Amino acid sequence: MTKPHHGLDDAPEEVKLAVDLIYLLETNEISPETALKALEIVKSDLIRKQEVSEI
Fold it and tell me: What's the domain of life for this entry (predicted)?
């Protein structure tokens, strides 16, 4: 028997993570402005960590 396909089963990991993050933000009623500011902080942090790990 084959496994049924559920929308995101075959999606790339980044899409699955994005969907989870959107759900988290919406269920906690985070404003788009606050979410975007927080995501910029997260992006900067991840870029810094990636640069350090490449050394």
Answer: Bacteria
For residues 13-23, one letter each, b for 16 or more C-beta atoms within 10 angstroms of the residue's C-beta and e for the rest, the string is: eeeeeeeeeee
Radius of gyration of the chain (CA): 16
pTM, entire model: 0.75
Type of residue found at 15: V
Cβ within 8 Å of residue 16, ≥6 positions away: 8
The Cα-based distances of 33 to 29, 38, 41, 54 in angstroms read 12, 9, 13, 32
Tokens of 36: 């975007």
Higher pLDDT, 28 or 9: 28
